[in-house]
Amino acid sequence: MKTRNSTSARAAVGTVGGVGGAGGAGGAGGREIYKADKEWCDHVRKTRQKLSQVCNQCANQRVRVQTIDGHVYEGVVAGSDHNYLHLVTGPGDTRFFGPAAITTLVLFELLVITLLI
To answer: What 8-state DSSP symbol labels residue 95?
Structure first.
């Protein structure tokens, strides 16, 4: 196993199913079962920051969003933070009941954001 100070250091992401003990990330008595590459973590952070800025610029505007899994959502950007985009979806969205709903999407799962005019 390489140390965290080596050039090919990896960032601990966590453990699955309680294997990591009380801390959840390789705590007392646990063993790490997955580590993300440092380069991948850096790329995700930069992409998330860029998407957060784009989403903030689209506040209160109608957009169409496609996720990396191919799901498409349309709505008005209610807000965003460093992790999520919040869309107000209308009655045409049959996945929800009532006149409107807030759909929360994870930023690093977004593939395309289209501003609708």
So the answer is: T
Q: What is the pLDDT of residues 68-93, one digit of tens each?
A: 999 999 999 999 988 899 999 876 55
Q: What φ, ψ does residue 92 adopt, rounded to 5°?
A: -70, -15
Q: Dump pLDDT digits (tens) for 12-60.
A: 444 444 444 444 555 577 999 999 999 999 999 999 999 999 999 999 9
Query: With 0-12 CB in 10 A as exposed, 13-18 as middle and 19+ as buried, what is 7?
Result: exposed
Separation of alpha carbons 52 and 18, rounded Å: 31
From 69, 108, 111, 107, select the one nearest 87 (Cα to Cα). Answer: 107
Residue range 10-115 forms a domain whose CATH class is mainly beta
Its pTM stands at 0.63
Q: Rounded CA gap, 27 and 116, in Å? A: 47
Structure tokens at 61: 């505007």
Query: Residue 72: which residues within 8 A CB-CB, separation 6 or more?
Result: 64, 65, 66
